[in-house]
Design goal:
signal; Metal Binding Protein, Guanine Nucleotide Exchange Factor, Chain A; alpha+beta; EC 1.8.4.11; oxidoreductase; multifunctional enzyme; Peptide methionine sulfoxide reductase MsrA
């Protein structure tokens, strides 16, 4: 044997040993960390992907297609009208990678069943077609057995709640195809929509379901926001940009879709968030999906103020009549704060109020950071418009140097304010 041949054998053996060692390390690492994957279909994959990613123990969630054959798995192909009821169509699914030491297969699949309606055949809500079918595609026998047992358990609970037969298909995964890039993290890329919530409200552990008292919602005007049980970026955005800063006198209450007992609701409740304006327990107006701060306050203005001078002042930059009724009420109040009639945010302090003799409420300054200033050239005049920073409603105008001792005069419409006396 030549030296060249001996070196070739030694190098080949060394490479094989190294590869075997690396493979063994990777296998052992995955086994030690209990990394598993399972593919789940429960309708449109956008909301499902985000809900899985938010679970502790889930490492990754990828939207994709599976369980079809006969053509290339692409969004364009599976959504063709001709394949709407094709049994060979691919399903919209999410491939979930998780650490079963942190979240068990049982816990993950309970979340799966509870977060859609597994009794709907080839649909979830308004999404209709075989691509929206309920399916569990497993990677091992333990997942398969767990899925079958949970399906049987959940069927008993659904039947007791008046639902039909679970149509979820459970089978081993053959092939998963990742969806197009624009489908991945779709809700992050499209921040002004909603998360579909087709859950039945039936849960595996009923002891975790609180008893909700809606008696306070049956009288007067109320704002009810339908929240998501799982993670919903649109709900979180609404809370951050609107709800968390709301201090208005009409109460805002968050409820899940299955917590509306006693209320008369017309708007479908499968989208989160859904905004409901209710009076004496009956819906007056509903809006599905995320609403911006401006949209929220305009809707609230219509609900609270109706067809009134206050609404026209707030949203059409009108002006109160001088010496109007509200001015007469507010011109001599005890010490306190005038607040935004819609948001409840403090705007003006009575200690800065003075009698300008104009017939409109006048102040030397606003509460710090409470108003914004805008150029106003209407009616052939050059003025500085004042708006509430919290709600965006029109308040009045600023006239520099027209106050006492050369101070500014904040000329404000009384109809868009409410008064809170000092404690």
């Amino acid at each position: 044997m030549t030296i060249k041949s001996m070196l070739l054998i030694l190098l080949t053996s060394s490479a094989m040993m190294t590869a075997s060692k690396v493979y063994s390390q990777d296998t052992m690492q995955n086994a030690t960390q209990h990394i598993e994957t399972i593919v789940l279909g429960s309708g449109c994959f956008w909301g499902a992907e985000k809900r899985y990613e938010a679970l502790d123990g889930v490492i990754d969630a990828v939207s994709g297609y599976a369980d079809g054959e006969g053509f290339k798995a692409t969004d364009k192909n599976i959504t063709r009208q001709s394949r709407r009821f094709d049994d060979n169509n691919y399903a919209e699914v999410v491939k979930v990678t998780y650490n079963s030491n942190e979240i068990t297969t049982e816990s993950l699949l309970k979340h799966y069943f509870e977060n859609h309606d597994p009794t709907q055949l080839n649909r979830q809500g308004n999404d209709v077609g075989t691509q929206y079918r309920s399916t569990i595609l497993t990677s091992n026998e333990q997942q398969q057995q767990t899925a079958i047992e949970l399906k049987q358990t959940y069927q008993v609970k659904l039947t007791a709640a008046g639902y039909g037969t679970i149509v979820t298909k459970i089978k081993p995964l053959k092939k998963f195809y990742a969806a197009e890039n624009y489908h991945q993290d779709y809700l992050k890329k499209n921040p002004n929509g909603y998360c579909p919530d087709h859950s039945t409200g039936v849960v595996f552990d009923s002891t975790n379901k609180p008893n909700v008292d809606n008696s306070a919602l049956l009288t007067n005007k109320q704002i009810v926001v339908i929240d998501a049980k799982g993670y919903c970026p649109y709900c979180e955005k609404f809370k951050k940009e609107v709800a968390n800063n709301y201090q208005g006198t009409i109460p805002m209450t968050f409820r899940y879709a299955d917590e509306l007992d006693g209320l008369t609701i017309k708007t479908p409740t499968w989208a989160t968030p859904t905004l409901l304006f209710i009076e004496n327990g009956e819906e007056v107006y509903g809006r599905q999906g995320y609403v911006s701060k401006d949209e929220f306050y305009k809707a609230l203005g219509a609900f609270k103020l109706g067809d009134s001078e206050a609404f026209r002042v707030a949203f059409h930059a009108r002006t109160d009549s001088p010496y109007c009724k509200q001015y007469d009420i507010f011109k001599n109040t005890p010490e306190g704060v005038f607040i935004d009639k819609l948001s409840g945010a403090p705007l003006f302090d009575t200690r800065d109020r003075f009698n300008s003799g104009t017939g409109w409420l006048s102040f030397t300054q606003a509460v710090k950071g409470s108003v914004t200033m805008h150029e106003d050239n209407s009616y052939g005049m050059q003025r500085i418009e004042l708006k509430s920073k919290s709600s965006g409603i029109h308040l009045g105008h600023l006239f520099p140097g027209e106050g006492p001792q050369g101070k500014d005069r904040y000329c404000i419409n009384a109809t868009v304010l409410e008064f809170v006396p000092a404690e």
